[in-house]
Write a structure and sequence with these properties.
The chain is an alpha/beta fold. The protein is built from 30 helices and 28 strands. It has a six-stranded mixed beta sheet with strand order 9-21-14-8-13-12. Strands 3-2-4-1-5 form a five-stranded parallel beta sheet. Strand 27 and strand 28 form a beta hairpin.
């Protein structure tokens, strides 16, 4: 799922550059783990001030960077106490936009200085406490990010850079120019000092774009000799005289796009955010200068297209379902080309970008999900039916600007609601005719030896499909199956069925909160009691920690995720949070497998319905029910509400009223569960394992003695080998004198080939016979341990 920010960072068919990679890295550092308070600041320590030359360029796309230094507020620079005031919101004129976390750049300050607390220099004392309420931007090994480390790390650009002093000096000299270089041109080869020095050679197109964006400031930034050289190249190559012409004249020529000016336009499209003033110039170019082939170069043309699209999408929400579908598909065919225009990168085409998932939704929602039997409906939904839910969720998440989001959500409701309603009613009709048979299809989760079960509250089937894709992209094997949730589809009823002790439970007629009880004691199956009973069965119950199986246990149980919590809290806003939740689950699963579990089974309790603008409301008189939730209610006595009634899974004599279709008993619900729909009832059951076949390996210890590293590995194959790399994905970055097999002792000792690498960030990797990386562990070369 993507947001406006995501679209700006990774515009269509354009490579991610250094500045974009930094922006993404900052965002990753600010990700908030489950149960953790949102950070109030991101601290960026830079012991040697290596990043300072890049700051002016970086602020063009990340304006909320504030720098420690002399008090120059218009440059967003000031002493520590001033930075603290910015973070606390005491300086409204300096405050970042709502929801934006300020980044505090601290040149010539180390993380260790801040962590020294009372021993921290007096001038930095106001910042010490912020590291506990905020985040610190650093490498996985805890060290500050150096320029070199960011260039070679897979968490950065993943480039192959020579590890010698001359190259280090050259890349620091070229840092501001590297920000404007197409990164793809630097891949697939080892970069050395000469490569970085070449970036400093005159680049007339880059200089022209800088002049167009900065105006007179560009000339003042350069010596007269360089200006004359730039002037000469412009006259000879572009037939353009910057002494007599203005940046607006250059923008007009760029719009015409003839000759070498086409190269100027292409270069702008590669990194438009580096030249923030150029879009304003292009708005001043008269539209009559545009040809049929250059219309895309005017932001005004794009603005008008967005305005027209907004009007047509709003009109579609008032059309009959079939006509609305045809209209959206037609609009997508008309506006799809604009997703390739540069304005999409700059966040100025939110509706054109939203049309992509909206068109998929329109195509999938044309016919409700059918099937003559329950089994056929379940199979159809698990095979492809969930894709309609996925398209709706992605459409809602596609834009976050308030005006655009309102239009997109209206379109989603118009396309999606009739499909949801018809699909739910067909499913309910099959259940009503075969209720006893349908109950037998509901089963508990299978728990097996050496498998850790990861319970994720509210992991809907389509979201599990996204999780499967992310896991497979990380080279894990993930097999997605399904089972059925019990009625009502709420946590109190469904979570116990997913636990390893579900066979010890039943219900009685006194339950009004849908919680089953333990057969032996009659006690309610609360979360605490479920865990206690798991432990009695030798199930290793993990908290939020990730660790290998404990001795004497047979299987594992752990919980993660906030999908259901966020759904109840945010309604349709949940869609924007799905990506973050999925990434957290991927890391949790990877951690469990790397810690020693052979497999991880991902299960859940129930799915949910989500509809922007709210699910329809159905009245249910309170005197007919004992308790009433959004999509289920316990019928009181012999009352007969005018709607379907089903037996509770744990005790069929407890009658549950369930609204027909996708209705709710309470108003204003954009997110709800508890009823009878495929989205609520068909839940994922996913088995995840390493993707490297039968061979498994886990690094349990890395110990340095001088420039020799001893690695301890737990593995099923003594022939696996150990390597030490600066970039764990690239064998060419190995600094090991030779690769070593671990043997039956499970240990390998590798020496570093060049003492100049001492102190560098590196990664220990374990390889199988096909050179697949089975496990990796970050380390610092030569670090005492």
């Amino acid at each position: 799922m993507t947001s406006d920010a995501d679209n700006r960072r990774s515009g269509p068919s354009h490579s991610k550059g250094l500045l974009d990679a930094l922006e993404v890295s900052f965002a990753d550092a600010l990700r908030t783990p489950e149960g953790t308070a949102e950070p109030i600041a991101l601290l960026w320590t830079d012991a040697d001030g290596q990043w300072e030359p890049l700051l002016a360029r970086l602020r063009t796309i990340v304006p909320h960077i504030f720098t420690l230094g002399d008090y120059v507020p218009h440059l967003r620079t000031g002493p520590a106490i001033w930075l603290r005031c910015v973070v606390e919101g005491s300086l409204p004129e300096m405050a970042p936009s709502e929801g934006t976390v300020p980044i505090l750049y601290l040149p010539r300050v180390t993380r260790q200085e801040l962590r020294a607390a009372e021993d921290c220099p007096w001038a930095l004392q106001p910042l010490v406490e912020l590291q506990y309420r905020g985040r610190v931007w650093h490498q996985r090994n805890g060290r500050d990010w150096t320029v070199e480390a960011f260039l070679v790390s897979e968490d950065g650009l993943g480039l192959d850079v020579a590890q010698d002093a001359r190259t280090r000096e050259a890349l620091l000299r070229a840092l501001p120019l590297l920000a404007e270089a197409p990164v793809e041109s630097l891949r697939e080869r080892r970069l050395d000092a000469d490569d970085f020095d070449r970036l400093a050679v005159s680049d007339p197109i880059r200089d022209l774009l800088r002049w167009m964006s900065a105006g007179d400031a560009f000339r003042s930034d350069d010596d007269e000799g360089r200006w004359r050289a730039f002037f000469g190249v412009c006259r000879s190559d572009l037939n353009f005289d910057p002494d007599k012409k203005t940046p607006l004249d250059a923008a007009s020529a760029m719009v015409d796009g003839s000759g070498k000016w086409a190269d100027v336009w292409q270069r702008f499209c590669e990194a438009p955010r580096l030249y923030p003033a150029i879009p304003a110039l292009l708005r001043e170019v008269p539209l009559e200068r545009l040809s049929l082939f250059t219309r895309e170069r005017s932001p005004c043309v794009n603005d008008e297209a967005e305005k027209q699209l907004r009007s047509e999408l709003e009109a579609a929400t008032r059309m009959p379902h079939g006509k609305a579908i045809d209209t959206v598909l037609g609009l997508d065919a008309e506006h799809a080309k604009r997703r390739e225009w540069v304005w999409a990168q700059l966040g100025e085409s939110p509706l054109a970008l939203a049309l992509e998932p909206l068109a998929r939704l329109a195509s999938l929602a044309r016919k409700p999900l059918g099937g003559a039997t329950l089994e056929a409906v379940f199979e159809s939904y698990a095979a492809d039916g969930w894709r309609c839910d996925r398209a709706a969720l992605e459409s809602v998440a596609s834009t976050r600007s308030q005006a655009s989001a309102a239009v997109v959500r209206g379109a989603v409701k118009a396309l999606y609601e009739p499909w949801l309603e018809a699909t739910a009613r067909h499913f309910q009709s099959l259940v009503a005719s075969t209720e006893d048979a349908s109950r037998t299809l509901v089963t508990g989760t299978v728990h097996e030896k050496d498998i850790c079960v990861l319970f994720v509250d509210g992991l809907r089937y389509d979201v599990a499909g996204l999780l499967q894709e992310r896991l497979e992209a990380r080279s894990f094997g993930a097999r997605l199956g399904y089972r059925l949730a019990p009625l009502p589809t709420v946590t109190a009823t469904a979570k116990p069925l997913a636990s390893p002790v579900h066979d010890a439970l039943d219900g009685d007629t006194s339950s009004e909160d849908f919680t089953p009880r333990f057969k032996e004691t009659g006690q309610p199956a609360t979360a605490l009691r479920l865990r206690e009973n798991m432990a009695k069965r030798a199930v290793d119950v993990l908290g939020s920690d990730v660790r290998p199986p404990s001795a004497g246990t047979t299987s594992g149980w752990t919980e993660a995720g906030r999908l259901d919590e966020l759904g109840h809290k945010l309604g349709a806003g949940l869609a924007a949070q799905v990506d973050t939740e999925i990434e957290a689950l991927v890391e949790r699963i990877a951690g469990l497998l790397e810690s020693g579990w052979l497999r991880v089974r991902v299960v859940t309790d129930h799915g949910w319905l989500l509809l922007p603008g709210g699910l329809p409301k159905l009245d249910l008189p309170s005197h007919l029910v004992a308790t009433k939730w959004a999509r289920c209610a316990v019928v009181l006595g012999e009352s007969t509400p005018a709607m379907p009634v089903y037996g509770w899974h744990w005790h069929p004599e407890v009658r549950i009223a369930s609204p027909p279709g996708i209705a709710c008993f309470t108003a204003g619900n954009e997110y709800a569960h508890g009823g009878l729909s495929l989205q609520e009832c068909v839940v994922p059951d996913m088995l995840v394992e390493r993707g490297a076949g039968a061979t498994s390996a886990t690094i349990t210890r890395v110990q340095w003695r001088g420039m020799r590293c001893r690695v301890t590995v737990q593995t099923s194959d003594p022939m696996v080998r150990v390597d030490l790399r600066l970039n764990w994905k690239q064998s060419a970055t190995s600094v090991a004198a030779s690769l070593k097999e671990v043997g039956f002792a499970g240990e390998a000792s590798i020496a570093v080939s060049d003492d100049a690498n001492e102190g560098a960030a590196a990664t220990v990797v374990v390889l199988d016979a096909a050179d697949n990386v089975l496990d990796r562990k970050p380390t610092t070369i030569g670090e005492a341990s």
